[in-house]
Write a structure and sequence with these properties.
Layout (H helix, E strand, L loop, with lengths): L1 H5 L3 H27 L11 H17 L6 H6 L1
Helix pairs in contact: 2-3
Length: about 80
């Protein structure tokens, strides 16, 4: 966010959106992995459906505001 205040560019704003989506996906993966490591777990999952849903929401958010942010920044973030 501070970087966007210094350089107000669509690429930086896209990177911020991509970074937020990546952090959410990492949190989802780590929480499912911790749950799968427990000894009484029968079903093992990595939360793929939720992570795809987060990616879809990020892409939809970019589509709604595509004039303000760059898709390459979203992909890099």
């Amino acid at each position: 966010y501070i970087l966007y205040l210094i350089w107000s560019s669509p690429y930086i704003l896209g990177m911020i959106l991509g970074l937020i989506g990546s952090l959410i996906n990492t949190f989802i993966f780590e929480s499912y992995l911790a749950r799968a490591k427990q000894p009484d777990t029968i079903h093992i999952s990595t939360g793929s459906v939720w992570r795809y849903l987060v990616a879809l929401v990020v892409c939809a958010f970019w589509y709604l505001f595509k004039d303000e942010m760059n898709i390459l920044g979203v992909v890099v973030g």
